[in-house]
Amino acid sequence: MEYHVKRGKPIDSGRLKKDLNKAGSIAAARAFSEGIEKGAKLSTCPACGSGAHRKLLTIYGFDYHECDGCGSAFVCNPPPEEALSAAYRSAYYTEANKVLYANDSIIDYRVAQVFTPKVEFAIQHSRPSKKTWLDIGCGVGEALSVVKGRGYEVLGLEPNVMEAEYASKRFGIEVRQDYISKDTVSKYRGQYGTISMFSVLEHVPDPNQILSDVSAIQEKGDALVIEVPHFPSISTMSQMTFPDMINRMMHPPLHLFLFSLRSLEGMLERHGYKINAAWLFGQDFYEMMSTLGLFAPALNQSKLLSALSPMMSELQAVIDNHDLSDEVLVVAERI
Ligand SMILES: [Zn+2]
C-alpha cells in the first residue's frame, strides 16, 4: 500500500522538567490493573486472526503478546466483558479523565496544540463529498470543537456521561451516549463524510467488529480517521525493559492493543478502505526519561534534564524518523 507518511510533531519543551516524576501514577495504575480479573488466553490475534504470537511481557498479571502475523501487540488474557466495563466505571479511570481531559485549565491548550494539527492533517488528506463529521468516542469534544470551527456539521458519540456533558456544555456540540453496532448502523448510514476514532480502537476487545460497522455506515470516497498507540516504539521498548514501570501506552487492560502500521493496513483493507496518509509521532523520549527517573530520583530537577528539555522535540524527531514513535494517526478512504 502506497501512501504519504509524515513523521514528527513538536512537543512542549517545558513538559519534561515539569512532571517527570511519575511514581505516584505508577502505584495507582498498578493497584487498578492488579484488581481486575484476567480472562482466558486468546488463541488468535484479534487484529489479524493469526495463531502465531508470543509473549512479550507481563504487566500486573496481563500478558502482552506480539503477533507474527501483523506485527501488533495485544493483551492475550483480556478481562471478561463485565470486568472490563467495570474497569471503565472505576474511580481510577473516571477521576483520571477529569484531571486529564475535562479540565478548564488545560482544555484550550489541548484543543490548540494536540487536536488542531490532527484535524488539519485529516482534512488535508481526505476528500469526502459531505461536510459532516462523526467522532466516535469523542471524549470531552476537543477534536469536534476544531472540526466545527472548520464549518462541518458534527456529532459526537461518547458513553462516558461526564465527558459527554462537558463536551456539550463547553463546545455546544451534540453528543449522544450511543455506540456504533450492528443495531445502530442503519441510524447513521450514509450521513457522515468523515468518521474519526481518536484513541478508541486500542480500548475495544474486537477492533474488526467496529471497523466492519463503520464501513457499513460509510460510502465510497468517505474518510475514516484513526489514532492508536503504535508498536513497536521506544516507549514500549522502555517498558519491556522495566515491565512494572507502566507508561502511557502499555496500560492493561485499558489498552488492549498497540498497532503496527502493517496491521492497520491489513484491517482497513479487509473492511474496504485504503490509507491516504499516516502520521507517526509520540512522546517516547519523555517516557524513556521518566522511566529512568524512577530508578534515579537525582535525575529529576538535575542539570542534565534542564539541558535536555529544550531539545525534546529534536530528540523525539530522531525516534519518529526511525518509525519508532508511540502513536500513529491514519487517514483512510472508503473504496
Ligand atoms: Zn495479528
UniProtKB/TrEMBL annotation:
Keyword Methyltransferase: yes
InterPro entries registered for this protein in UniProt: SAM-dependent_MTases_sf
Keyword tags: Methyltransferase, Transferase
Glycoprotein keyword on record: no
MF (Gene Ontology): methyltransferase activity
Superkingdom classification of source: Bacteria
One Pfam assignment: Methyltransf_23
GO biological process: methylation
Protein name per its UniProtKB record: Methyltransferase domain-containing protein
Organism of provenance: Rhizobium chutanense
